[in-house]
């Protein structure tokens, strides 16, 4: 468990961003995996926003997940409106965590006009078989809600699907950014950056990195281009559809996302991620020797054991850190299977530019080497010479492993 953070009550809250902009977060506590793959032990919030002019717009929706629609309905009641009061439903992104309840919402409000990019509208048709009351907007198009409330739509493709856009409300300077600038973790009774303690911010920083590494990292080039494109907007408040809203220091999360995006090009922070698996402890002995070497050079490191630890957390550290140690035995003439799964995820997520040391023991014959070399093809890693040994590592093996740990640590320290 992460220290310094408690879930608080299972509370849905409505928060006021301005006289006309309201923020609703539905907190999802579940043992289900996010996207069917990523654990969310601290939950996730699905945020939606109501903008009131003469017309009312709802920005992003929820999935029918746990009690999200019920939480949304309660929030609307506290705003003194029903779903039928909404004139426009703006869908920045069509992934089902933000749209899964669309068909039911449309049944509750048949007159609502659904607004998205052209690609988004096509997904509304294919996912939900809705063909009427749809409006595709172009990059830069505006929507006047009356009473001085104007929305501007900006296409930001692949943050995180190709149809994605963001919406900006000029009077309050609020950027509704959907997945961009988001995080895992429920919010409880709080909502804004200035309401969370330092410890809670540390928690959310970790969970925003894990969210980024798991969900967004493959699209880091698009993140950089998207942020550049938004530079012309006066952003006073960043309002994503997962995690806290940034009204006091909106540029903190934008700069953080730029830093996260930079890790995709490698090498990353001057730290080392050690990932290991061991059948009978022989590889573990080798790993301990490498750790002694790293500690002599005082380079920070984190350790993850496979298959015990979920790849979501391993990915978070491996994405961020410039050094990697992969310690695994040979298993049936190939890599230890849980490590093969981790490397497959690294390949899919383009974990590139790392400096890597692979070590491991074998019993009768080797085989991990060939399998490993095939698995990392194309990852553009700087590979130190691997160290393998038969059975239990000898004193000479341990000395060599310790020295290799030192070598790796020195390279990481000296990296520019
Ligand atoms: Fe939160 Fe890509 O959906």
CATH class of the largest domain: Alpha Beta
Low-confidence stretches: 1-11
CATH topology of the largest domain: Metallo-beta-lactamase, Chain A
Report how far the terminal alpha carbons are from each other.
Answer: 34 Å
| Count of helix runs | 12
- As laid out across the biggest beta sheet, the strand order is 1-2-3-4-5-6-7
Radius of gyration: 24 Å
Strand content: 15-25%
Mean of the pLDDT scores? 95
Can you tell me the CATH architecture of the largest domain? Answer: 4-Layer Sandwich
The CATH H-level superfamily of the largest domain is Ribonuclease Z/Hydroxyacylglutathione hydrolase-like
Given the helix and strand composition, which structural class is it?
A: alpha/beta
Summarize the biggest pleated sheet.
7 strands, mixed
What is the strand tally?
20
How many distinct domains? Answer: 2
**Heteromolecules bound:** MU-OXO-diiron
Q: How would you describe the shape? A: elongated
Estimate the helix proportion, in percent. 25-40%
What does this structure look like?
The protein is α/β, with parallel strands linked by helices and 416 residues long. It folds into 2 domains: 12-263, Metallo-beta-lactamase, Chain A; 269-414, Rossmann fold. It has 12 helices and 20 strands. It has a 7-stranded mixed β-sheet with strand order 1-2-3-4-5-6-7. Strands 13, 14, 15, 18, 19 and 20 form a 6-stranded parallel β-sheet that branches. A 5-stranded mixed β-sheet has the order 8-9-10-11-12, with helices on one face. Bound molecules: MU-OXO-diiron (FEO). MU-OXO-diiron (FEO) is lined by residues 93, 95, 97-98, 160, 179, 241-242. MU-OXO-diiron (FEO) binds at residues 93, 95, 97-98, 160, 179, 241-242.
């Amino acid at each position: 468990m992460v220290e310094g953070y408690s879930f608080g009550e299972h509370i849905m809250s409505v928060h006021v961003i301005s006289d006309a902009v309201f923020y609703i977060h539905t907190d999802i506590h579940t043992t289900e995996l996010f996207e069917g793959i990523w654990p969310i032990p601290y939950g996730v919030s699905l945020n939606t926003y109501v903008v009131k002019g003469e017309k009312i717009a709802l920005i992003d929706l929820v999935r029918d997940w746990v009690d999200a629609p019920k939480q949304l309905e309660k929030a609307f009641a506290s705003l003194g409106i029903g779903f039928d009061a909404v004139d426009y439903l703006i869908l920045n992104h069509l992934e089902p965590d933000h749209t899964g309840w669309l068909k039911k919402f449309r049944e509750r409000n048949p007159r609502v006009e659904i607004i998205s990019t052209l690609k988004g509208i096509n997904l509304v048709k294919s996912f939900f078989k809705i063909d009427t009351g749809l409006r595709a907007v172009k990059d830069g198009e505006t929507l006047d809600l009356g009473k001085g409330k104007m929305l501007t739509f900006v296409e930001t493709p692949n943050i995180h699907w190709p149809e994605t856009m963001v919406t900006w409300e000029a009077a309050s300077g609020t950027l509704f950014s959907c997945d961009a600038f988001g995080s895992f973790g429920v919010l409880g009774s709080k909502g804004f950056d200035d309401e969370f303690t330092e410890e809670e911010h540390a928690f959310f920083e970790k969970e925003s990195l894990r969210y980024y590494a798991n969900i967004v990292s493959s699209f880091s080039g698009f993140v950089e281009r998207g942020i550049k494109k938004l530079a012309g907007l006066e952003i006073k408040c960043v309002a994503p559809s997962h995690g806290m809203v940034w009204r006091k220091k909106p540029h903190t999360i934008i700069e953080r996302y730029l830093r996260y995006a930079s890790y995709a090009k490698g090498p990353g922070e001057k730290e080392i991620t050690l990932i290991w698996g061991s059948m009978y402890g022989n590889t573990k002995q080798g790993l301990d020797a490498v750790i002694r070497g790293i500690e002599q050079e005082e380079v920070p490191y984190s350790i993850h054991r496979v298959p015990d630890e979920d790849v979501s957390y391993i990915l978070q550290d491996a994405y961020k850190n410039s050094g990697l140690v992969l310690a695994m035995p040979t298993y049936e003439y190939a890599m230890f299977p849980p490590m093969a799964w981790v490397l497959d995820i690294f390949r899919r997520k383009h974990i590139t530019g790392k400096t890597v040391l692979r070590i491991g023991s074998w019993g009768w014959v080797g085989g991990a080497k060939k399998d490993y070399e095939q698995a990392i093809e194309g990852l553009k890693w700087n590979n130190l010479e691997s160290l393998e040994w038969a059975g239990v590592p000898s004193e000479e093996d341990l000395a060599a492993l310790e020295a290799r740990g030192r070598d790796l640590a020195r390279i990481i320290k000296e990296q520019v």
